[in-house]
Structures are given as C-alpha cells and as structure tokens.
Write a structure and sequence with these properties.
The complex is a heterodimer of chains A (993) and B (116).
Chain A: E1 3-4, E2 15-20, E3 23-28, H1 33-39, E4 46-47, E5 54-55, E6 68-71, E7 77-81, E8 91-95, H2 109-112, H3 121-125, H4 132-144, E9 159-170, H5 174-182, E10 190-193, H6 202-205, E11 209-212, H7 217-230, E12 234-237, E13 240-246, E14 250-256, E15 270-282, E16 286-288, E17 301-303, H8 304-313, E18 316-317, E19 323-326, H9 332-340, E20 347-350, H10 359-367, E21 372-374, E22 376-382, E23 389-394, E24 397-402, E25 406-409, E26 412-414, H11 417-421, E27 426-429, E28 434-437, E29 444-446, H12 459-466, E30 479-481, E31 507-509, E32 514-515, H13 516-524, H14 530-537, H15 550-561, H16 565-568, H17 582-586, H18 603-608, E33 611-616, E34 619-625, H19 633-646, E35 648-652, E36 657-662, H20 666-673, E37 685-692, E38 698-708, E39 711-716, H21 721-734, E40 742-745, E41 751-756, H22 760-767, E42 783-788, E43 791-797, E44 805-810, H23 812-826, E45 831-833, H24 836-846, E46 894-901, E47 913-915, E48 932-940, E49 945-953, E50 962-965, E51 974-979
Parallel strand pairs in A: 2-8, 9-10, 9-15, 10-12, 15-29, 17-25, 19-20, 19-25, 20-21, 35-45
Antiparallel strand pairs in A: 1-18, 2-3, 4-5, 6-7, 6-8, 11-30, 13-14, 14-15, 16-26, 22-23, 23-24, 27-28, 31-32, 33-34, 35-41, 36-39, 36-40, 37-38, 38-39, 41-44, 42-43, 43-44, 46-49, 46-51, 47-48, 47-50, 48-49, 50-51
Chain B: E1 3-6, E2 10-13, E3 18-22, H1 36-44, E4 52-58, E5 66-72, E6 77-83
Antiparallel strand pairs in B: 1-2, 3-4, 4-5, 5-6
The chains are: A alpha+beta (993), B mainly beta (116).
Chain lengths: 993, 116
C-alpha cells in the first residue's frame, strides 16, 4: 500500500481529478502521471513492446523505459513518459500497446511464444518465399509495430528562441546551483537550465544531504535561487531540457510552457531554445542503473533512488514495506527516509560482503531491527501482473519473502550523454564502475556526479578548481550527509537464476524487451562488436536509449567476450538526449509558413476564372482553366490548344526568371556564360540561348535580350532563376573577378504576358493603337520599349507555341489592369487564357524542349540537334571544352526525335521505353534491349493523334524507322515511326507570319 | 550546426552558408588546349581528404560573397577563413591531427570512442 509524506513541500494540497483508462482518480496539483497513479496504488500502467508483458513505473524521471502512456486530452500524444508529464485537472490518459484492455491483453500470447522471438527473429524468419514480404509480412509487422497510436492532426504554435551567451549551466542541482552562485553579478552572461519545475536536483529528490552551510537543503535552494534571481547576469530556464550539444557550443533545449497546465492551443506550448555559448558547464548529474534478475520487469520493481524521489519530490510513498536490493552504499538514505516516516522495509539485501559494508549502515539496520542479508542477491521475483514474492539467494540458501515492491540500486552512471554528444572522450572509472568524462573536445566543463565525483564533500573543491579559469570568487559548501561520505560499490550486473527455463527472463532492456539471453545469442552468432550487437538485438534502441541499462549490457558483454569494459567501448551517443516533439522542431514553419507561396499580380483573376493551379518552384501557376464545372483536364487542354492555334491565347508568364546584366564587360560575360555568340547580335534583338555546366550538359535555357553591349536581360526557367543567378554570381566572383559586371534579379519587377495565335496581331493593335506591329516594323525576335498610360512597357516578339506571338513586360502594379484590358479587346477574337499544360502541349507540337523534361542533366545541345546555338567561333564558354570529350561526341548518345504512332488511335505515354519488340514476353528472363524513353507524350488536337518526343540512342540516324513503345499494364507494344520532332509548321511560317 | 566566420560579416550560423567544394581549383585559361584527361580532371576530380581541407563557402543568405576556408574534415573545426583574392595559407600553418573527435582510425570508422 502507498502512503503520504506530508512533509513534501513541492506538491500543492489542491486535489484534482485525472482519468486513466476511463476511470477517474484523485491526484494533487504538481503530481506527474506516475506519482498520481502510485498514489492510487496503480502499479500496472502499460504493456511491453514485444512480449506484451505487464509493466509498471520503473523510475521517476526522463530515463523511464516502461511507463509510456497516451495523452488523449492532448491531441492523442503517444509515448509520453508518465514519470515526467505533469497532470492537470481533467487530464485524460490511456495505457498503450494492449488490446482489448490493460489487464487482459491479447498480445500477451507473444510472451508464451517468446522462445521463438529471440534476437534476430525478424531477420531470420521473414526471408521467403518471394512476394510474401510485400503482401503478408510487412503489413502484419506494421500492424503490430510501435507502442502508441499516432497523434491526431493539430496545429502547433511552437516557437523557436535564440540565445547568445557566455556560459550555459545544464542542470540546477547541487553543483549547478553552486557553480551559478560563483557567477552572480560577474561580467558573464549565464543561462541556468533546469529540466524540472523546481531547482535543487538531488537535494529535493532525496534525503542524502542533511544540511548545507547549516541550512536545510530546501532553505539553501531557496536562498541560492533568490540570489540568482536578484543578480543582473543570470537567467533561469525551468521545465527546459537540453537535448542536443552540437559543434561550436551550440545547444538545443526544449521548454515545456504548459507543464502541469492544460494546453491552450492559441498559445505556444513548446519553445525550442537554440543557444550559442562560449562555455558549457554540464551538471546534469547521474542516472541510477538496475540489475538484471529473473522477472526484473514485473510491476513493483523500481529503482531505489526513484522510490526515494517519489517520497521527497512528490510526497508519495509507493509502498510502506518494500524490499531493498543494492550493491552500493547509496541506499542508506532511502532506509532512513522510510524509517523516519514510520515505514519499515521487509528486508535489506546487499550484494557486498559483510566486512565491506559501512558500519553506519550495519548499525542503522541493527538499531531499527530490519531483516538484513549481506553477500546476498535477489534471485528473482514472481507474481501475477505484479510483484508478490521475492526470492533472496544467500550462499546456497534461498529465502522467499512476500512483498509487493522491490527497490533496486545497481550503482550510478554519470550522465555523459551530452558530454559525448559534444565529442568529448570518456574513460572507465573502476571506483564507480562506470564511464566518466575525460578529455573535452569543446569548451566543456563537467562538475559533480556528471564528472564522476560521487563524494559530496569534494564537490566544493572541484567547483572552485574547475571554474577558476573564470577568475570568480571562491565559494564554500559545508555539507552534512545522511549517507556514507565515500561511495562504495561491488560489481554486480546479473544475478544467477535457480533453473534454466526457456520462459524465464531477466531483462537487459526493458523498453525493447531484450533479455540477457539475447545478448549471449547475438555473440554466439558473431555479432560481437558492440555497435553490431546493439542493432542486432535492438538493445538500448528504445525511446529511453537504454539510460538505466546500457552500461550493464556493456559489462555483461565484456564478461562474455572476456575483455575489459573499456576495450568493448560504448556505442555512439547521438542527439537528442530524450525524444522531442516534431512540433517543436518545426516551430512556426508549418502549413502556409512551411514554404511560402509566390503568386503573380494576375492571381485573383485566375481564381475568378476557374484556374486549376500547378506548383512550379514556389510559384502558383495556372495549369488549365475550366470552361465548365464538368470539364476534365484533358478536355480543357485540348480545347485551349485548338482555340489558340485557331484564334489566340494568353498565358501569365510572370513567373519566368528575369536577370538584368549590366556593366562594362557585360558582353564578354554573356559570351562566357551562354553557348550562343552575342557579339554580332544587333541591339534591341533577342535570342534563344542555353547555359551549360562545365561538363557540357544543359543546365538552363531562356531568351536573352540585348539592349546594348553593356546591358542584357536574360530570362530563365521559372524554377531555375535563383540557381542561374547564383551561378553567374559565383563565376563573376571566383573565376572572372576582373570583369566589371553587375547582376540583378528583376523577376518580380515585371508582370509578363505571352500572347500568341494567328489573331494576336489584331488584338495587339486594338490594345496598343499607337504601335506598328507589322512584320517589317516589328520582326520576330526583336523588342521595343514604349510609354503606356502612366507607365512604361516592353514588348518582345517571341513565341513558345510556334504561333505568331508577343511578350509584354509591365510593372506588376499595372499588370492586372492591362490583362483585363487585353481581354476586353480580345473577346471578339475569341481570345482564351491558357495554362502551363496547354503551353507544354503546344511547344511539343512545335518540337521545342523543356528543361527537366527532355533534359535530365545528361543531355548536351548537340543531342538536341541545337548545334546552331553553339558559338563555335567563340574561344571559350562554360562547358565548351566538354562538348568534344569522347563521351559527349559519341554517335550513339541518346538524341532527340519525334514519335508518331503508326496506328493513329494509339496513345504514346510519357516515360515509356522504346524497344525493338512488338510484344513483351510474359515472363522476362533476359534483359530487353532498351533504346530510349519517351520524354513528352500528348494527344495533339491539331493533328488529331498522339505525338511524342523521345530521347533515343543514335536517334539522329533513325528517321523513318519503326520501333515500339511500351504501354502501361500491357505486354503488347505500340508501333511508332521515328519522325522529325517538329510536328507543326516546320517552315516557321506561322511563327514569322 | 557549426559557426562560420564570414570574412565580410563576422560569425554566423552554418545555415546561412552554402558549401562550394574544394577551393583553389582554378578554371583553365585555355580549355581548348587541354587534353581530354587534363580537362576531365578539372571537371570531375576533387580531393576529399580526412583532415585539413581547403574549401569554398558562400554566405548565400547574407552578403552572398564567396570566400575560402580551411577546415579539418575529421573534427569539423574551421581553422581559418580568407577572402578569394587572399593567399592560400600554407598547410604547415595547421596542426593536421588527422584524428576524428572520437579517435577513429585514419581510414574508415569504427568504435574507439573510449580513451585507453
């Protein structure tokens, strides 16, 4: 039975109600879920990962491997550690990994079958036959995997906060507070970070320290906190956990803004602190470890210092008559605590020899008449879903005791997680039987038990010495203890079992259900390197990262391998220290803030006119316009494409990248960046140009407008603009710093409309009556600037559809007005708006390529038959030399061709392969010869059959030949003829009409 | 996340920068006169040492300036930053420990995180 410690000052006496698995329980404000459940004598809180064994609360902190619950009242948050999550009135909690109920769990059948679920079970079992993995094993494993259920969709308002500081102290326990005291009112900016909502660490969690400087621990904590709060240089962050220690003293800490309160979704519930500091002082203490024995996972087994913490920190004595099992001197304070509250332990079992046990412990046990077993160990415990009997082995005799709780202490590990994340080296300390920090890699100082110093009397000297580099005042601590001064421990990792049954288990990893037998088996099977062993057995791979057990497993493994522990080594510690919510990492970068949307000045018109949008980079571009509610995409695109070639269409091309190139050496620069020759080009003309990489492959294309030799405007693809600008800038800065050229992105300075179709000229003459659009005055690939109303515009004669076309550039402020005006005049000519899909179809009919569709980073201009674009007489341009590499000059490179189906009803699909076989065999035994692929495939409404562009090996010499194109879900291939890729107007009559 | 000192702006988070690969790979003046092998080496071959490495960075979310840095690739320590037009610092200026922080062997990796 549990009892109450009325002296506890950290729990308010305000009673609240919580709901666990549908039942309402009383709790106190300030309780964690675990302390509230223990208060109500609930021991069984969950089922284990693999064997579905009943599990209870094992610890009292972040290291908890068992008590993971789902918080229904917080958007179903799973795998919440009951030992640190604070309750509030009305909190709704559900146990995990059980069906239909916690008490009667169907999955517990795994425990009966456990002899077959040993290490490597999945690797060995789910091997074959072929097809079983995809259809049977994977769905089955997925259904049973994981502990909690995923959370419900919710909108987090988590925020990020940045700090730049001189010193960060991680952990405000005894040494953290003492260290902070040294910095009070100094020139250093200090951040003191505490995971709990109270400062004090071990001082508030245990009875180990009696007095400090004549004050009770609580008085000393309050006095120190007061001093820190009144200082002008130290900030305290409570409820904040440091999870990550990166290079260059970069720390990440997570603050729970609603610890013990119901979350208000209108406020930020989590703050992720990103801290850059000059020095880090780690004082986050130690973690107690367990000992493996038979059924060491039964609800009722708990770490001794956690048991003590529940009494002091939460005012609940989980059990008034527990058995205590230890291998070290630290458990005396628990004994004293229990006795002072009028509770009497059933037995005290110490694995050390009687002579090695401190006299003050022996004397206390004798005085209080507590049953004492020295040189003894717990063989195991038994019971139905809880501890009922405990078997003690002393020499050859066994004693069975009835008790419902067993407190275990297997010693302490310095919490080196953050220190090793910072890349510091650790070493094995024989006196404390654990790894402790040795050589720091960064400016890191460890103090107190984190540094392996378990002697309270020596803490003050350690702090004064290690912090002396900061030249601050010395402090003095006079500490009186309830435990022996000197920490003493005897090595004990696993106790011997009475009999060897296949079903008896002594666990090494409670979270992932790894037993000591699994470790043995893994070593037998050859996984004797610790990193291999960890992955094969999943030891210490749970959400607790084996905080209470990983050193134990190293020790057990080293014994089996007959090596020193320091030779076996530790596995690599990686961030985060403890799981943190994705919501915190994402911060405000969610939903519409995740990736900004870019919209053109015409966007509102597109919306009104039933545009369906496509994402191009960050841009929203109209994909096609729905003429009626029921019109499909195919129908819309066919209609738009036909209408444009008959009348006229207009496209919002504002998203095209535009870069202004200006300066004395602009001409030379452009000649180097692009394949084309610009020297002889006349001012106020434009040219289709290509940019290559140094490997000769096409990177981007666009139209270059030459205003004069010192001033160019380059357009780029919509998504390529930032990269093209960055590449130009890179070459200017690093390779040709002697060139005087300035670059400027002007993409958003202009709205751009591409208007094209046979009736375009008539519409343009109506909209701009003062401008002469005749072929002589305004030939193809020229541009002019005009005054238009209160602004200036530029019109260029260019086309991406193969029809007569113009591009209009206007400042975005006036864009929408001009767009609407064009439509008011265009109505009588049946002008239509069209989207990117129609643009793609029309350009394919004309045989124009699209970067990223016909090209994929392995295509040169020669592969596309674009030899005319290469300025062969230029001495140099980016990628020129590569065009004559043996690989780029191969005859059998994939080259651009057109495809026309022989049966005009067949449909050529994009992405299909081109082969020589008219039919694929039912079962493919030998590889089928691959000739190339279809890069674009459309149904052309103007030719009334399917067309394709393709990249085929040696395609240039295959004109007129017949091949086959594969089709989705069919073995029968489509016969096609290789044709010129220009399907419409090969003579460019329409273009230059 | 490491801290990088931009020679123009000062110390900033790594997230403000982009890495540009090996530094001091100069684009040949007359590519046409190069053999296929030599040109291929310029385009495709880069050093990738464990230890001291001269590399390029650009302050892409800042001043957009390119600069060079000397970094120990095994410890991620940036030992020096310098402007593009400044002289390449001598290799002997730096202590080339060739050691990773966890004391891994020179080639490959392994688990030697513990000092013996």
């Amino acid at each position: 039975m549990s009892a109450i410690n009325n002296n506890c000052e950290y729990i308010s006496k305000k009673q609240i109600k919580i709901i666990f698995d549908g039942k309402t329980y009383q709790a106190y404000e300030g309780d964690t879920i675990a302390s509230a459940l223990l208060r109500n004598n609930i021991r069984l809180v969950g089922r284990s990962f693999k064997y579905h064994r009943p599990r209870g609360v094992y610890t009292c902190g972040i290291e908890e491997p068992n008590a993971l619950v789902q918080i229904l009242s917080e958007h179903n948050e799973p795998n919440t550690r009951a030992t640190i999550k604070r309750v509030y009135d009305g909190m709704e909690i559900k146990s995990q990994n059980r069906w239909p109920s916690l008490k009667y769990d169907f999955g517990a059948v795994n425990n009966i079958l456990s002899p077959i679920f040993s290490a490597g079970f999945y690797y060995k079992t789910f091997m074959g036959p072929k097809g079983f993995w995809k259809n049977l094993y994977e769905p089955l494993i997925r259904r049973s995997a994981g502990l909690g259920k995923p959370p419900k969709n919710f909108r987090s308002k988590s925020t990020h906060q940045y700090h730049n500081t001189d010193i960060v102290i991680i952990g405000a326990g005894l040494s953290g507070l003492a260290a902070a005291k040294k910095f009070i009112n100094t020139k250093y900016k200090v951040l003191l970070i505490e995971q709990d909502s109270y400062l004090g660490g071990i001082l508030k969690n245990s009875n180990k320290v009696k007095t400090i400087n004549g004050l009770t621990p609580l008085e000393w904590i309050n006095e120190t906190e007061e001093l820190i709060l009144n200082s002008n240089n130290i900030t305290i962050l409570k409820n904040t956990l440091v999870t990550t220690y990166n290079f260059t003293n970069h720390l990440i800490a997570l603050e729970d803004k609603f610890a013990g309160k119901k979350i208000d979704l209108n406020k930020s519930e989590l703050t992720l602190h990103k801290i850059r500091t000059s020095n880090t002082i780690i004082t986050n203490g130690h973690i107690e470890r367990f000992i493996s024995f038979r059924n060491n996972d039964l609800p009722g087994v708990m770490l001794a210092s956690s048991f003590e913490k529940y009494i002091h920190r939460y005012g609940v004595v989980p059990e008034t008559e527990p058995v205590i099992f230890t291998n070290n001197s630290s458990t005396l304070s628990l004994l004293k605590t229990l006795i002072s509250l009028g509770c009497k332990p059933k037995a005290y079992v110490d694995s050390r020899k009687k002579d090695n046990i401190e006299t003050e412990i022996k004397k206390f046990l004798k005085d209080k008449d507590i049953s004492f077993f020295s040189d003894a160990e717990i063989e195991g415990c038994d019971g139905n879903k809880k501890v009922e009997t405990i078997t003690i082995r002393q020499g050859k005799s066994f004693t069975k005791l009835k008790s419902s709780m067993l407190c275990v202490s297997g010693g302490y590990n310095p919490d080196i997680h953050l220190f090793t994340q910072s890349k510091g080296l650790v070493k094995w300390d024989k006196n404390i039987l654990s790894f402790k920090p040795d050589t720091p890699f960064q400016k890191t100082i460890t103090l107190g038990s984190t540094s392996g110093n378990y002697n309270f009397k020596k803490i003050c000297d350690e702090i004064n010495e290690k912090i002396s580099i900061f030249k601050t005042k010395k402090i003095s601590l006079d500490i009186n203890l309830n435990v022996p001064n000197k920490f003493s421990i005897k090595e004990l990792w696993e106790t011997k079992k009475k009999s060897n049954s296949n079903w008896s288990k002594s666990f090494i990893d409670l979270h992932n259900d790894v037993t000591t037998k699994d470790l043995k088996q893994a070593i037998t099977e050859g996984f004797d390197r610790i990193e291999h062993l960890k992955r094969y057995t999943t030891n210490s791979m749970g959400t607790d990262q084996g905080k209470i057990s990983s050193i134990n497993s190293l020790a057990i493994v080293s014994k089996m391998l007959k090596k020193e522990i320091s030779e076996v080594g530790t596995t690599t510690y990686r961030p985060p220290y403890a799981p943190l919510s994705f919501a915190a990492i994402a911060g405000r970068s969610t939903y519409e803030f995740y990736d900004p949307e870019r919209k053109t000045s015409i966007h509102s018109w597109h919306l009104k006119n039933n545009a369906v949008f496509e994402d191009v980079g960050q841009w929203k571009r109209p994909w096609y316009f729905k003429a009626s509610e029921n019109e499909t995409m195919h129908q819309a695109v066919q209609r738009e494409s036909k209408m444009l070639r008959e009348n006229a269409g207009i496209l919002d091309g504002s998203t095209l990248g535009k870069i202004e190139i200006k300066g004395r050496d602009a001409l030379e620069f452009m000649n180097l960046m692009y394949t084309n020759a610009f020297s002889k080009m006349k001012p106020m003309t434009s040219r289709y140009a290509m940019m290559l990489g140094e490997d000769g492959m096409i990177k981007d294309d666009g139209i270059i407008c030459k205003i004069n030799d010192q001033h160019f405007i380059a357009t780029t693809t919509s998504s390529g603009a930032p990269k093209v600008l960055a590449d130009m800038e890179e070459y200017l800065q690093t390779e040709w710093p002697h060139l005087q050229v300035y670059l400027n992105s002007i993409t958003e300075q202009f709205s751009t409309f591409n208007i094209s179709g046979p009736k375009t000229r008539e519409i343009m003459m109506k909209v701009f009556p003062d401008i002469d659009f005749s072929n002589d005055a305004f030939p193809f690939m020229t541009f002019k600037n005009f005054d238009y109303k209160e602004t200036k515009i530029r019109i260029m004669r260019a086309s991406f559809t193969g029809e007569l076309g113009y591009e209009i550039y206007i400042p975005p402020k006036f864009g929408l007005k001009l767009w609407e005006e064009i439509f008011s005049y265009g109505k009588e000519y049946n002008l239509i708006p069209y989207g990117t899909e129609t643009m793609h179809l029309l350009r394919a009919e004309k045989g124009y390529i699209v970067i990223g569709q016909e090209t994929d980073g392995t295509v040169t201009p020669i592969d596309l038959n674009y030899n005319w674009m290469i300025g062969k007489n230029k001495k140099d341009f980016i990628g020129k030399r590569s065009l004559s590499r043996p690989d780029t000059s191969r005859e059998d490179r994939k080259q651009l061709v057109g495809l026309s189906p022989i049966n005009k009803k067949d449909i050529i699909e994009e992405g299909q392969h081109i082969v020589e076989l008219n039919e694929l065999p039912k079962k493919i035994t030998n590889p089928i010869k691959y000739l190339g692929h279809v890069s674009s495939g459309y149904h052309s409404p103007n030719l009334n059959h399917s067309i394709g562009l393709a990249m085929i090996r040696g395609g240039k010499n295959l004109l007129g030949q017949k091949f086959f194109v594969t089709a989705t879900g069919k073995t029968k291939n489509i016969p096609v003829e290789i044709v010129n890729p220009v399907f419409i107007d090969p003579e460019n009559k329409r273009l230059t009409s | 996340m490491i801290l990088i000192k931009c020679p123009y702006c000062g110390e900033r988070d790594q997230s403000e920068f982009s890495n540009g690969g090996e530094a001091h790979v100069i684009r040949p003046k007359n590519p046409e006169s190069l053999s296929d092998k030599d040109w291929g080496e310029y385009v495709f071959y880069r050093n990738n040492p464990k230890g001291i490495f001269y590399e390029r960075w650009v302050h892409s979310h800042g001043c957009k300036k390119w600069f060079n840095a000397v970094r120990n690739t095994s410890t991620d320590q940036i030992l020096k930053v310098y402007k593009v037009n400044e002289k390449r610092p001598d290799l002997s200026d730096f202590e080339n420990t060739l050691k990773s922080p966890s004391g891994e062997p020179l080639v490959g990796s392994g688990n030697f995180a513990v000092k013996k």
